[in-house]
Amino acid sequence: MALSLTAYYSLPSLNTVCRGYHLSMTINVRFFASLRERIGVARTEIPADSVNDVRDVWQAISRQPLDEEVLVAINRNYASLDHTVTDGDEVAFFPPVTGG
Description:
Ubiquitin-like (UB roll); 7 strands
């Protein structure tokens, strides 16, 4: 049985709430320590379709330049600033670690 165009366009989009779950495509972003203070939030979300890599994530949130020494983890695994991000990823930014 074919689906008519009218029926197709009346279906909920992926960005709607379905059975209590929000199905929009997002990247979860977290900031730690001095970066949290610098950015002003501990966590936020951005649309996944607006970014390609970690640098894009930073630029979507901050107008400040990204320090090349910042550490990044994607889904709790260290990653480079050029690492590709996808829907549902958690990107965490950490200030450079110093010893003393």
